Amino acid sequence: QVQLAESGGGLVPPGGSLRLSCAASGTIFSIGIMRWYRQALGKQRELAAFITSGGSAGYTDSVKGRFSISRDNAKNMVYLQMNSLKPEDTAVYYCNADLSLSSDYRYRGYWGQGTQVTVSS
Predict the structure, then answer these.
(1) Any idea what the Cα angle at residue 51 is, between residues 48 and 52, rounded to 5°?
(2) When you count CB atoms within 10 A of the terminal residue's CB, does the N or C end of the chain come out lower?
(3) How far apart are alpha carbons 26 and 48 in whole angstroms?
(4) Does residue 36 contact residue 110 with C-beta atoms inside 8 Å?
(5) Parallel/antiparallel/unpaired status of strands 115-119 and 10-12
């Protein structure tokens, strides 16, 4: 059974930092793009950052210069380092990844359950 599991969320004061982790487990042949989405209460889910298998990354404008996405292909992990956090970063953060379960390289998107990040004094 394939699953994505996030960890590292919590309560942090404005200006603080958190590091989110996401582990992909199960019988996985290949991992394509890995992403972090976030969804604030009452708002639509938005893409915060993504990283390709080759390490190319992209960010939504509101987190550029503050967030950094990275991955460890050997461990099937993706990370999101969040610095200079603001109250508007408060949201549930979801890991998403394109996974291929066999050598046919047919990728399908999988989601984690999400982890709450609250930025408040």
Answers:
(1) 145
(2) N
(3) 25
(4) no
(5) parallel
